[in-house]
Amino acid sequence: MTTANHLDVLIIGGGPAxxxxxxxLARAGxxxxxxxxxxxxxxxxxGDFLSTETxxxxxxxxxxxxxxxxxxINRVSLAGSLGVSSATLPFVAQSLTRRTLDExxxxxxxxxxxxxxxxxSVESLHRNxxxxxxxxxxxxxxxxxxxxxxxxxxxxxxxxxxxxGTHADLVGLKMYLRLAPSQLAALHDTIELFLLHxxxxxxxxxxxxxxxxxxVIKRNLLRDAGRGWPALSALLSQTPHLRTRLEASQPLLDxxxxxxxxxxxxxxxxxxxxxxxxxxDQAAVIPSFTGDGLALAxxxxxxxxxxxxxxxxxxxxxxxxxxxxxxxxxxxTILSRALVSQPQQTLLALTARIFPSTLRAVASHTRLxxxxxxxxxxxxxxxxx
Length: 385
What we know:
Helices cover 35% and strands 26% of the residues. The chain has a single domain (9-165, 263-376), classed as 3-Layer(bba) Sandwich (FAD/NAD(P)-binding domain), CATH 3.50.50. The protein has 385 residues and is of the alpha/beta class.
């Protein structure tokens, strides 16, 4: 087991990116500590959709998704003012709550040999010579390591803000629901995308026959509508398809989860500083409709670990990640802007209605290119430094 006094890498944040990096590094014999501010994994606004890239990464990290209760998804539909268009997904997908997934990944990181410190947060971070110094709360302590992996998700560490991205005027919201039996059956093996005035979202099943409703909407429209579930339910019910799905449903959270701003389109091109790897949503944020945010988080964490194990710099990592993701994020962000604009919404809905294969094409072209997907850790990197 790694001790906090002799570290090779300190990872700040225990989401998928941070845990994936911790697992890869610990497996390779590196001394890793992971700092997670929450005592237990909890629900997150986004990330319940597991694309084929996500499933592959999770399998390689040692997770048994079937044992965790993941739900299969084989079809995608788009519901708008012109009705519903459906198509078969061009890949195998599953769905699983972030609460379940994050906990499983943290446990895998600990089992791999990483020191997982829960209920702690980093108050400050600075570099002195060749070492990074992180001031930890509860109890107060300072940890040092030559390398930092910044994996704090959509929450910025003090003094290290991200840019706003290129499409940052949206609020993200989520509610878990118990649907009426007839609606539950209709949603079987399908993720439903829907369009609403000034926004879009998705509805699918996760474990225990729970429905996951996640959507984004322009901030000014949400301000007018209100954020409580009754107000949001009324807003969503303006879409006929959603009104049918939500009829007689029961909310399972006290209030909707929310996050804002969301820096869609963010993609760091350069490292923040020597020895500091920004991963997950600290490195890149793709619009939610693609369902590939989790895949990119895992990919960035694993790629950063492999880069470090190959004795390459954080600057090299960010240049490589930018090259790999720029086309994917660029296309996804253009489509995201169209999905919240009324004229473009109508055009997209009409196109999908006439050519259902459009849904398959969009799903295919907003994925991480196959040539960049990580399949295994290089054997030469499996010896401790």
